[in-house]
Amino acid sequence: MSGKAFSAGEAPAGTDAAPAGDGPAERLARWTAGYAALPGLPDELVSADGTLRPAWDRFLHRLAGLPDCEIAARLAASGRHIHDTGIAYRAYGEATERDWPVGALPLLIEGAEWQAIAAGVAQRAELLEAILTDLYGEGALARAGLLPAAAAAGDPEFLRPLVGVAPPGGRHLHFYAADLGRGPDGTWRVLADRTQAPSGAGHALENRLVMARALPEVYGALDVERLAPFFQAFRDGLAAAAVRAEPRIGLMSSGPYSDTYVEQAVLARYLGLALVEGDDLLVRDRLVFIRTVAGLKRVDVLWRRIDGDFVDPLELNPTSRLGAPGLVEALRDGAVAMGNMPGTGLVESAWLAASLPALCERLLGEALRLPGLPTWWCGDPEQRATVLERFDSLAFRPAAAPAQGAFTSRAFGEGRDAAETERLRGVLRDRPGDLVAHEPVRLSTAPVWDGTRLVPRPFVLRVFAAATPEGWRVMPGGFCRISESPDVRPVAMGAGVRAADVWVLAAGSTAAQASLLPPGDRVAVRRVPGLLPSRAADNLFWLGRHLERAEAVIRLTACLLDGAGAVSMAEEDRATSARIRSLLHAWGAVPSAEGTAAGLAHHALSDGGQWGSGLSHALSARRNASALRERLSGETWRALSALLAALEAPAESPESEAALLDRAERALSLTAALAGLAQENMNRAGGFAFVDMGRRVERAVNACRFALEFGGAGASTDDLGVLLDLVDSRISYGARYILGVALAPVRDMVLLDPYNPRSVAFQVERLAERLAGLPSLRQDGMAEAPVRLVAGLSGEIAGAEAGTLPLDTVAAWEMRLWDIAEAIGARYFPGGSDAARPETLATLA
């Protein structure tokens, strides 16, 4: 068993062997030996008298029924599943993704206790909605002195263009989250409110799927409350905000370089939403549309996952490249609903916390059920006097900063030197309204596994609430972050932090079995193409192109290695090898055409520093796939991960030619698997056409280039044999021609044969078929540019003869194929084929 993050294929420490006669009771005693709560802090595993809490007692007794080796094997399998299917995250400021660090122990909460938490979270969400309604409406609370008007008006999250805008659907908040921790007395307290664009719900879903897969017997036996009803209610709440009866809903993302993009893709796929970016949206006639390959399609609701001031560069932040001009005007007109409305980040700011108890009494007529930390806004003279009296024992943070300011060392009253103390006193004297003071945070603890036993570690629990037609609905579970160190300060995802699933145990009855599948009579049968944004089509097209480029480089490398084993090489063999080397160099796969076959093959397969290597193309394909997470199956992710693993150089390099050839052949098998998955698993009405067209264009271009290099008038037998290998047609050729390789038949099979699935002719025919199946935007019945270009090339190829075909014509076909790719980009993708794609975004930032 391991409470550490699941690791791909690695058994957790301390589980390889168990003591002789180690049964369930002995295992449980060994796991809990020496466990004790930290002084002065409540703990989830043990009560104040040191006994196991009932929920954990039931969980550990169930878990102890499994042998250590079985638990270790399951967790290792879960780690491989996380890695292979791309369940990942990006820590803020990092360029690369990390495997999602799910710990093996869930956080357990009894159903009765959860009901009190859920009621408090729902109340808090309703309170913040009422405050937002006033702040962007009448402003009565500020006039009555119930909240500081200067702090609200000066907050950068107060978006003045939204003042007086009635939120479409009647709500500012559609999705709310609260970060919770237990106070020293064991009661739950709110550490931070999340109203801007709360993240973590997708991670909670991922945690649940992984844990239910790893420990199905324990999960089923404990009657854990299911998450699906919450997500169904949230989706219904978004739909209810729309004007049209069958609305189109989009999740508005900042793109694949967002640190929460993976969870956004998970949510979009799970909820059936269109994952869109600002470039996908267009405001026309005050309506909002998504740019798709079938033209503009109206969108009715946007679930916002970017900061509010980035939504519209015309009226909000003019530097934003994440939003769409005109969105605020569309909100004014009620043409699109948005959850959450821009400007909701205002109530995350620290200055509001001191006023919440009184505001709850005023607006809701009841006491605040989930208190926050005792807080004082220093702009109020009476509150400032209290702060000055208790200065040394309080923590400070900026009044207008979002609540993540609570996750800094200054929030704990620790580490203040003389200079920092003097600075704070100066701000209190000159600009006291810029500061908020509160009691320091010390988190309670929950059990994790350190390799041999359970140990207490601090945690933060994020709980989610969704606005539904029936009111606020709270997710029965949440997103838990647990530190790997005993430091009891709040934690954010990054190094040394893991996630935990949250199991709410059903109170008094078996947890309801539910899913997102609605009753059959609620959904009409349709056979229409799904929504395909132009940006997604662009990424699909380039996914196919990069995979085909990787395959071409790998095949060329395999041919180099396959011919390198002869003790003495004939002159024509050396000439063929020189052509292979030259082409690898021209394609950027190797730094030079000179060197040993093994050295060149290592570069061509595994050198990520060479822009044209197989690994570089596979990484580019992975980047395109990262922007398509909601559209790709788990099998596709596993095959792509396996391809990268096959191309990456092993630690025991340098490798022999035989080992390199074996890796190349394994990689070719995986490219074939990826092509088969696209062929068999992708809906023909969706993105398949663009993946396939990307592959067809590149395969045809490569076949032309191979014919130019190895199929000239003076081609040797070795040249022609390599040419057949490069287009994977040696077996087909041998079945048709008994007498051996000859120039005209080889050229015909590579270039002109419409029955050979690797020929140029075959690729052009498939391009014509895919284009014919795509919607046309022309109303005059005339063919669009890609269709015209493909038809012209198809006619030329059909009329050509291999025996008299000039190589100049083949070179012209190669250029025509590039023109076809450009025409497809100009017609179907945003900004044309020169638009920035995911692999170039990092250089533009």
UniProtKB/TrEMBL annotation:
This is Uncharacterized protein. It comes from Methylobacterium variabile. Residues 8-23 have a biased composition (Low complexity). Residues 1-24 are annotated as: Disordered. Residues 532-829 form the DUF403 domain. Residues 106-482 form the Circularly permuted ATP-grasp type domain.
